[in-house]
Every structure is written in structure tokens, then in C-alpha cells.
Design goal:
The protein is an alpha/beta fold. It has a single domain (4-333), classed as UDP-N-acetylmuramoyl-L-alanine:D-glutamate ligase. Helix content is 35%, strand content 20%. The protein is built from twelve helices and 13 strands. It has helices at residues 41-53, 67-77, 141-160, 183-190, 201-208, 218-227, 249-253, 256-259, 263-266, 287-300, 305-320, 327-333; strands spanning 4-8, 11-16, 35-40, 57-64, 82-89, 96-100, 108-112, 131-135, 164-167, 196-197, 232-236, 242-246, 270-273. It has a nine-stranded mixed β-sheet, with helices on both faces. The chain has a four-stranded mixed β-sheet with strand order 3-2-6-7. Helix 1 crosses helix 10, helix 3 packs parallel to helix 4 and helix 10 packs antiparallel against helix 11 (305-320). The model has no long low-confidence stretch (mean pLDDT 94).
Length: 341
């Protein structure tokens, strides 16, 4: 199984334990429980999940010269399959999120972009990597200048290196600078160089949904991403699971060292996979990233499309239960997973 580079957005997640009465009332004191300090963002969530699955992963991101940055470095060092190439900003603080997640309620993020603003990918060394996974451009202003030119440059360089490219998005804050960008222009420019894209419905709706009619379904989203040039599209749709759509064999053969060998089995596929049931939901934070990790790991292992979606669903379910998607956990959650090469 080849090496993977996961690059882009990283932050430290600060998640206080709150109950259903959590609220913000000016001038009052609201009691909360202990705070959980963990890594967040695509680089951490997807990278750690891939490492737990058994892949060899190199992380590339930008942090600040501060205590949160040192926490990020220490937490990455806890994982034996991870190595990190972290740039340090001289002026910006490490990115962080306050994650408010009351029981049985969707989570809310208060997010500081911080040092992520300096990430452009220009210093990223691909070497012999078979796969480059990048996330989340809406939270990486340095990738979006000039209509996404730095992202296009990075993926062009990856393709010249024979590296398969993978992209994950994030919800676009319409009140932020990212909300003013022409996302159809950005995606139209980078998707011909994007071999795998794994956004959520919310990501796509926030980026380009406003310019489409009311029939903007997940199927229509997938069709649009394929038309713009992506080879493999995997869209997460919450309780409706993941929709997988793929382009023809020729486009897949142009998809670098990881994707090209799968071209014949993965061409012109349409599949849906519902989420795997779990007894108790511990968190949904990072579940989408773990789904992407399971998909990519299975593809690296030569899985067929249905088996890859089963790996994605099992990896996501592990996170939802409060565990990491390591082999022991997956054997319990999904004992019939197809073994990989």
C-alpha cells in the first residue's frame, strides 16, 4: 500500500461537555463539564483515521508558534504511522474551534482560521506519494487567491508526479471572505485535476447551491462535479448515506498511481451506501472525514466500489461511537468487511 500525503486545514478542537440546557445568555454563568482537547480539521481527522486504518501518512499544514501549536505537534506524535511536515507561521496563531455539541443536537463551531491562512501548498514535497488528499479550501484563503490558482498549481504538480489527487470541501461561511468567491469558477478550474472529491451535501449547497434551482439533488450535484472533470465523486448526505458516482475508464486511467489500476472496475459506477447503524451516538465530529479515510484506504488496497463504500461506512461509524477506525474496532462493527491487499 502506497504512501499518502494529507495536507491543508488543521486546528485544535476545544469541546466542552454541555447538556441540553446549554445556551448563551449575556451576564449569566452557565455550568459546563470538562473540556476535551483534540485535533480537528481535515489534516488531523482524515490523517489520523488513515493511520489508524493502517496507512503510512505524512501531514502537511501550518500552525502558529504558540501553546495550541505545541499541543498539535504532541498529539500528532502520539500516532506511530504519522509523520508531520508542519510549517510555523511567524505572525499568526494556531487555528482552533470551539465545538458546541449538546446531546442529540447537531454541533456548532466557532472557528478561528489563524495560521491556516498562510497555507498554499507551495512548500509541500510530494516525493513518491501515491495519493495527495487536500482539505478544506473554504478555510484556506491562501489556496483560493486568483480563482483558486494555488490549488490548481498544487494539483498540476501532483499529476506531473503521478500522484492521485483527492479533495474534500467544507461548509462555506457566506459572511466570510470565502463566501464572496466564485465557487463555480474555482471548482471548474480544479476538478479536471481532481481524481477524487468527497464533499458533503452541506458543503456543496453552501458553495454553489444558491445558483441552482430547487431540484438541486445529491444526484444533480454528483453529475455537475463529474461534468466539471472529477473522476470519482463521493457525496455524504447525512442519514441518506453516501452517493458514489464515477467517470469513464479513460478519465480514471489518467488519475495517477492509485486510481489508474482501478479504472476498469471503477468506471461508470453509481452506488449508494446507507450509514452503518450504531447503538449509541457519541459524536458526529470527524465522521465525514473518517468516511473519506475509509474510502481512500480501501481504494489504496484495491477494493471494488461497493467494498470501498463499506469501509467508508464502517470507518465513519467507529468515530460516531467514540472510537478510532482501527482494525480491532472495525472487526467488531463490521465483521464482514472485505479484506484489502
Amino acid at each position: 500500500m502506497g504512501d499518502i500525503v494529507v495536507a491543508g486545514h488543521i486546528c485544535v478542537d476545544l469541546t466542552p461537555t454541555v447538556d441540553t440546557n446549554a445556551r448563551i445568555d449575556p451576564g449569566t454563568l452557565i455550568g459546563v463539564g470538562p473540556v476535551n482537547i483534540s485535533l480537528g480539521g481535515c489534516v488531523a481527522n482524515t490523517g489520523i483515521a488513515l493511520a489508524e486504518l493502517g496507512a503510512t501518512v505524512r501531514l502537511h499544514a501550518t500552525i502558529g508558534n504558540d501553546e495550541l501549536g505545541r499541543i498539535a505537534e504532541r498529539k500528532i506524535a502520539e500516532h506511530s504511522n504519522l509523520s508531520a511536515d508542519l510549517s510555523m507561521s511567524a505572525t499568526l496563531a494556531t487555528s482552533y474551534s470551539l465545538v458546541i455539541e449538546p446531546p442529540d443536537t447537531d454541533r456548532t463551531f466557532w472557528h478561528h482560521t489563524g495560521a491556516n491562512a498562510e497555507f498554499t501548498g507551495a512548500q509541500l514535497q510530494l516525493d513518491s506519494a501515491d495519493l495527495l488528499h487536500v482539505g478544506y479550501p473554504p478555510l484556506l484563503p491562501g489556496l483560493l487567491s486568483d480563482g483558486g490558482a494555488p490549488l490548481v498549481t498544487l494539483f498540476t504538480r501532483a499529476h506531473r508526479n503521478g500522484t492521485t489527487t483527492s479533495l474534500d470541501l467544507a461548509v462555506v461561511d457566506t459572511a466570510s471572505e470565502a463566501g464572496s468567491y466564485d465557487w463555480e469558477l474555482i471548482l471548474g478550474s480544479v476538478l479536471p485535476l481532481t481524481d477524487i472529491i468527497s464533499p458533503s451535501v452541506d458543503d456543496l449547497t453552501s458553495a454553489i447551491g444558491a445558483v441552482h434551482s430547487d431540484d438541486w439533488t445529491v444526484e444533480a450535484m454528483a453529475e455537475k462535479l463529474l461534468a466539471w472533470g472529477a473522476a470519482v465523486v463521493a457525496i455524504s448526505a447525512g442519514a441518506e448515506g453516501v452517493l458514489l458516482r464515477t467517470a469513464g475508464a479513460k478519465r480514471l486511467r489518467d488519475g495517477g498511481r492509485m486510481l489508474a489500476p482501478l479504472a476498469d472496475r471503477w468506471a461508470n459506477v453509481t452506488l449508494r451506501m446507507l450509514p452503518r447503524r450504531v447503538d449509541k451516538i457519541h459524536t458526529t465530529n470527524g465522521a465525514g472525514d473518517a468516511s473519506t479515510a475509509g474510502l481512500l484506504f480501501a481504494m489504496l488496497g484495491g477494493a471494488d466500489p461497493r467494498a470501498a463504500l463499506e469501509w467508508a461506512a464502517a470507518s465513519s461509524a467507529a468515530i460516531v461511537t467514540g472510537a478510532q477506525p482501527n482494525p480491532q474496532v472495525l472487526r467488531t462493527l463490521a465483521p464482514h468487511l472485505v479484506p484489502l491487499n
